[in-house]
C-alpha cells in the first residue's frame, strides 16, 4: 500500500518483488522532490502471453507480461503538526490492468521519527480504505516491522480465476524489513501466503560514489625545464614542443600553442577530465611552468573537435601562481580572470612553427583494463585524437512474441582519424560473437514506411558488418554559432548526407539548432547494399533550461517516415551528472499497429537514462552509459542517429562556463570543494501560488460592470448573428471546393495556428523583456480561461459540425465534439488580444481571423462558430489585459545574470 512520502530528491531505487501470482521488476525515481515515478515490468503466472490458434506463435515468450507506469505527487510536506499529503495514479499508460488512483496522508512520530503511519483511500487498485505503519527500534535501526491493511480487490484482477488471484483476500498483512547502506529486503506474511522484495537504492544527488584514488595528479612545477627567453622560444620549436608533450601526457588532445608578443595562447581539449574548469586549471598550471621569460598573460581556449568553445584569460601570472599554491583567495583571483565564449580569432595557428613535428610519436596499441568505463579494451589514441578501439559489448531486446528477452554479444571496432582541421573520419564495425536475435519470427505489419520496425532483419544480417563510416566537418561560423556537415553511413539502417547549425545565445537558458539530412535506407547485409526507401528529414530544435537543472527540448519538422510533427523531451540532471528523461512525439503519421488504432493512433514515447561513469570509477572520465526504453518499436516519430550532435557536444562546456564564476574545480584545492561553482546547489522552483492568487484577485476586481456586459453581449451577439447569415453559402462553397489544394492548405493552417500563437506567448514569457513577459503571461492565462469556457459552451450548445450533414442547427452525435464555438478560433483570439492591445497592433486580429476561418475550409466549423470563438477569446483576452497590464501589485520576471538565472514573482497589498 502506498504512503505519502517520496524518497530523497534524485534517488533511484530498483529491485524485484514477488507476490503471487505477480512477479515484478521495478524502478522508482524521485524526479523532483515532490514527484516520484515508478516503472514496473510485471509477469503473471498461470496464463500465457498470447491466446492464438497458432500453436507456434508466442511459444517462446512464456507467461503474460505487462509494462506499468505509476506516478505519485506530494501535495504537502510533513510538518510538526500536519501530515504529508500525496495523490497518486497507477498504470497510467498501456493496458491499464492495474489502473487506479489514490490519496494518502502520512505522519511520523517520536523524537527520532522511528514510527510512521499512513492512511488513505483508493479507487480501483487499491479499492477503498487502506492503512499502514512502520516501526524501527532504536536498538536495531536497520530493522523495521511493517503492518498494513491491504485494500486490493484481487477478484477483479485480470483473469483472476486463471491466475489464482481470485483466491486471494485483502486485509491485514505484516512484514519485516532490513536495510544496509544501499541494499534492502522485505519479507511479508499475508493471510494465506508469503511475499518478498529486494532492492538497491542509488542516490543520484550524491556527486560521486567512488573516491578518485588513482586519479593522476596535476603537473608539478619542479618537473618543468629552465625558462628561456621569448626569442629563444620563437626560434627553437623544441621549447613549445616540450609544453605540448607535457599537456598530451595529461590526456590533452588537439593541443596548439602560440606565443604572440608576451601572451602565451593555448588551444586544446581533454577527452577524459569531465569538468571544463578543472581541465583548464591543469592546462594553465602546466603552461605557467613552461612559459618563457617576459610572459605577461596566458590565454587558454577549450575546444571541442577543434572548435573554440570557452576562452579563459589570466592577466596576472603572479596572482595565478599564488592561487594555484593556496596563497590567494578566490575573490582576489577572480579580479584578474576573464571567462567567456570563444570567438573565431581565439583559434591559434595550425602550423605552430614546427612544434608538432618536434614531438615524438605516440598512440601505441595496448590492452587496457577499466579504461573509459570498459572492463577490457584494445585501443590506441594519439595527441590528435586519432584512435583505434575494440570493445566487447552486449545488447538486449525485449518483448518480441518469439521470446521475451533476446540478446547479442558483440565486439565494437572503432577507428577515428583527423583528416584536416575540424574534419574527421569516423567508423564503426560490428562483429557478432553470440546472439539469439536471429530467432525473432514476428514480422512488422506497420502501414507506415518501415523505418525502424524491420530491426530484426538488420540484426539477422551479416555477422561482420559496417555500422558507421562517415566524414564530419565541424566549423565555427561566428561567436556562439557552429555548423557541421556530414556524409557517409550514419548508422546501421541509414546512409546519406546532411548538416546541422547550432546557435548558443549569451543568455544560457536556451539554444537552438537546425538539422537537415538526405537519407537512403541501407540493406540488411550491413555493407553497401540498399533498400528502395529514401527521405529527407529536417528538424528544428529549441532547448530551454528550467529550474532543478531540467532541460526541455522541442523538436519540430519532418521525421524518418515522412511524418511531420513535434517531439518533446524533458530531462533532469542531478548533482552526480546522471540524467533521467522522457520523450513524447505527436506527428501526422497514423500508426494503427496495436496498441494504436484508427481512432487513436500510437505516438512514440519512452524514457531514457544517462549515467556518467566517473561517479563509479576511481579516476575521472567523460564516458557515459546510456539506456533508452520505449514501449514499442514503431515507425512514427523516428529520427536518424546523429553523426555528431552539436548541442550534445557543446552542452557540458557551456554548462561549466555559465555555472557561477565558470572556473569550477580550477586549482583542485580542498577549500574549493564547497564553492557553488564546484558543488552547485539545487535551484528549486518558486511557489507560484501567492502571485497567481494576486493576479486572480486583480482580475476579479476589474470584472466588467453590468452596462459593459450588456454592451459587449449586444455587439458580440450581433457579430455572431451576422456570421450565421454566411453559414450556408460559405459551407456550400467550401463543400464544392473541398478537394482543392488551397482549401486543404487553409484548413491545415487553421489547425496549426492556435498552437503557434500560444507558443509565441510562451516564447515571450521565456525570452522577452519585463513588458513582453507580463503580456505573454496574460496571453497564456487568456488561452487557458477562454478554452475552458469554450469547452463548456460546446457541451451546452451541442451543435453539429457541417461535415455531419445534419443541417445548420442540427444536434451533434457527440456533444464533446460539438461545433459551437470553435476552440481553435477561441484560442487564437485569446492569444493575440493582449499583444494587439498592448502594442497597438490590430493586424494581429486579422491574422487570427484569417487563420481561424481555415476551419470552415475543412468543413469543421460554420462561420458563426468561428465568429463566436473569436468573440469569446477577444472578451477574455481584453478583460485580463485590462486587469493586469499595469501590474504594480504583482509581476513575473525571468532575469538572466552573468552566471545565473533568476525566476521571480513579486507582489504587494
UniProtKB/TrEMBL annotation:
Pfam families: PAP2, YjbH. Gene3D superfamilies: Phosphatidic acid phosphatase type 2/haloperoxidase (1.20.144.10). It comes from the Bacteria. Residues 801-817 have a biased composition (Basic and acidic residues). Residues 774-881 form the Phosphatidic acid phosphatase type 2/haloperoxidase domain. Residues 799-819 are annotated as: Disordered. This is Phosphatase PAP2 family protein.
Amino acid at each position: 500500500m502506498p504512503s505519502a512520502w517520496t524518497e530523497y530528491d534524485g534517488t533511484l531505487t530498483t529491485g524485484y518483488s514477488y507476490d503471487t501470482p505477480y512477479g515484478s521488476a521495478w524502478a522508482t525515481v524521485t524526479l523532483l522532490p515532490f514527484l516520484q515515478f515508478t516503472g514496473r515490468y510485471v509477469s503473471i503466472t498461470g496464463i500465457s502471453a498470447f491466446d492464438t490458434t497458432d500453436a507456434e506463435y508466442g511459444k517462446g515468450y512464456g507467461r503474460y507480461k505487462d509494462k506499468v507506469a505509476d506516478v505519485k505527487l506530494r501535495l504537502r510536506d510533513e510538518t510538526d503538526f500536519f501530515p504529508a499529503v500525496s495523490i497518486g495514479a497507477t498504470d497510467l499508460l498501456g493496458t491499464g490492468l492495474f489502473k487506479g488512483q489514490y490519496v494518502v496522508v502520512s505522519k511520523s512520530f517520536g523524537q527520532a521519527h522511528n514510527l510512521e503511519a499512513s492512511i488513505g483511500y483508493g479507487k480501483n487498485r487499491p479499492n477503498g480504505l487502506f492503512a499502514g505503519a512502520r516501526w524501527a527500534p532504536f536498538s536495531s535501526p536497520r530493522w523495521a516491522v511493517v503492518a498494513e491493511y491491504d485494500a486490493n480487490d484481487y477478484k477483479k484482477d485480470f483473469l483472476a480465476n486463471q491466475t489464482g488471484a481470485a483466491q486471494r483476500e485483502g486485509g491485514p498483512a505484516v512484514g519485516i524489513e532490513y536495510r544496509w547502506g544501499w541494499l534492502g529486503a522485505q519479507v511479508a506474511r499475508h493471510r494465506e501466503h508469503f511475499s518478498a522484495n529486494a532492492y538497491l537504492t542509488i542516490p543520484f544527488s550524491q556527486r560521486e560514489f567512488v573516491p578518485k584514488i588513482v586519479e593522476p595528479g596535476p603537473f608539478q612545477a619542479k618537473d618543468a625545464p629552465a625558462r628561456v627567453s621569448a626569442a629563444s622560444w620563437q626560434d627553437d620549436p623544441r621549447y613549445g614542443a616540450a609544453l605540448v608533450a607535457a599537456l598530451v601526457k595529461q590526456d590533452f588532445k588537439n593541443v596548439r600553442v602560440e606565443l604572440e608578443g608576451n601572451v602565451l595562447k593555448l588551444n586544446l581539449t581533454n577527452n577524459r577530465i569531465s569538468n571544463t574548469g578543472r581541465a583548464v586549471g591543469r592546462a594553465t598550471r602546466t603552461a605557467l611552468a613552461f612559459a618563457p621569460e617576459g610572459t605577461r598573460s596566458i590565454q587558454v581556449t577549450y575546444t571541442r573537435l577543434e572548435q573554440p568553445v570557452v576562452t579563459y584569460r589570466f592577466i596576472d601570472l603572479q596572482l595565478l601562481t599564488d592561487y594555484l599554491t593556496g596563497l590567494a583567495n578566490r575573490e582576489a583571483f577572480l579580479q584578474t580572470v576573464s571567462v567567456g565564449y570563444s570567438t573565431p580569432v581565439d583559434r591559434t595557428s595550425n602550423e605552430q612553427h614546427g612544434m608538432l613535428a618536434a614531438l615524438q610519436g605516440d598512440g601505441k596499441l595496448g590492452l587496457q583494463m577499466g579504461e573509459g568505463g570498459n572492463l577490457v579494451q584494445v585501443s590506441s589514441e594519439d595527441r590528435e585524437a586519432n584512435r583505434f578501439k575494440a570493445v566487447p559489448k552486449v545488447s538486449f531486446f525485449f518483448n518480441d512474441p518469439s521470446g521475451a528477452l533476446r540478446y547479442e554479444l558483440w565486439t565494437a571496432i572503432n577507428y577515428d582519424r583527423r583528416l584536416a582541421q575540424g574534419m574527421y573520419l569516423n567508423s564503426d564495425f560490428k562483429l557478432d560473437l553470440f546472439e539469439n536475435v536471429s530467432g525473432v519470427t514476428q514480422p512488422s505489419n506497420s502501414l507506415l514506411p518501415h523505418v525502424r520496425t524491420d530491426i530484426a532483419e538488420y540484426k539477422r544480417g551479416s555477422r561482420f558488418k559496417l555500422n558507421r563510416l562517415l566524414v564530419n566537418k565541424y566549423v565555427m561560423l561566428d561567436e556562439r554559432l557552429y555548423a557541421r556537415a556530414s556524409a557517409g553511413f550514419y548508422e546501421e539502417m541509414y546512409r546519406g548526407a546532411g548538416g546541422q547549425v547550432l546557435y548558443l545565445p549569451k543568455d544560457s537558458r536556451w539554444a537552438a539548432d537546425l538539422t537537415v539530412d538526405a537519407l537512403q535506407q541501407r540493406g540488411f547485409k550491413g555493407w553497401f547494399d540498399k533498400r528502395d526507401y529514401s527521405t529527407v528529414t529536417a528538424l528544428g530544435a529549441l532547448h530551454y533550461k528550467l529550474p532543478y537543472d531540467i532541460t526541455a527540448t522541442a523538436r519540430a519538422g519532418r521525421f524518418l517516415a515522412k511524418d511531420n510533427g513535434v517531439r518533446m523531451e524533458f530531462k533532469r540532471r542531478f548533482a552526480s551528472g546522471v540524467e533521467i528523461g522522457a520523450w513524447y512525439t505527436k506527428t501526422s503519421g497514423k500508426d494503427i499497429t496495436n496498441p494504436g488504432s484508427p481512432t487513436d493512433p500510437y505516438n512514440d514515447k519512452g524514457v531514457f537514462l544517462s549515467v556518467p561513469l566517473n561517479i563509479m570509477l576511481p579516476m575521472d572520465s567523460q564516458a557515459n552509459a546510456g539506456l533508452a526504453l520505449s514501449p514499442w518499436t514503431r515507425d512514427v516519430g523516428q529520427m536518424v542517429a546523429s553523426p555528431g550532435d552539436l548541442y550534445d557536444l557543446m552542452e557540458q562546456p557551456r554548462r561549466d562556463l555559465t555555472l557561477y564564476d565558470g572556473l569550477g574545480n580550477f586549482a583542485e584545492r580542498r577549500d574549493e570543494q564547497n564553492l557553488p561553482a564546484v558543488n552547485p546547489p539545487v535551484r528549486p522552483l518558486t511557489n507560484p501560488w501567492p502571485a497567481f492568487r494576486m493576479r486572480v484577485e486583480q482580475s476579479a476586481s476589474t470584472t466588467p460592470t453590468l452596462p459593459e456586459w450588456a454592451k459587449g453581449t449586444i455587439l458580440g451577439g450581433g457579430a455572431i448573428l451576422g456570421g450565421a447569415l454566411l453559414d450556408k453559402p460559405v459551407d456550400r462553397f467550401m463543400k464544392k471546393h473541398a478537394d482543392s489544394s488551397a482549401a486543404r492548405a487553409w484548413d491545415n493552417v487553421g489547425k496549426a495556428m492556435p498552437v503557434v500563437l500560444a507558443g509565441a506567448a510562451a516564447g515571450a514569457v521565456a525570452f522577452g523583456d519585463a513588458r513582453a513577459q507580463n503580456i505573454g503571461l496574460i496571453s497564456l492565462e487568456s488561452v487557458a480561461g477562454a478554452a475552458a469556457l469554450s469547452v463548456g459552451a460546446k457541451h451546452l450548445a451541442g451543435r453539429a459540425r457541417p461535415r455531419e450533414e445534419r443541417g445548420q442547427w442540427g444536434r451533434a452525435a457527440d456533444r464533446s465534439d460539438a461545433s459551437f464555438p470553435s476552440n481553435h478560433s477561441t484560442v487564437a483570439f485569446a492569444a493575440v488580444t493582449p499583444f494587439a492591445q498592448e502594442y497597438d497592433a490590430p493586424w494581429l486580429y486579422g491574422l487570427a481571423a484569417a487563420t481561424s476561418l481555415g476551419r470552415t475550409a475543412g468543413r469543421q466549423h460554420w462561420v458563426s462558430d468561428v465568429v463566436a470563438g473569436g468573440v469569446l477569446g477577444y472578451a477574455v483576452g481584453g478583460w485580463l489585459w485590462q486587469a493586469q497590464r499595469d501590474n504594480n501589485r504583482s509581476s513575473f520576471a525571468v532575469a538572466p545574470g552573468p552566471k545565473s538565472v533568476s525566476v521571480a514573482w513579486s507582489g504587494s497589498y
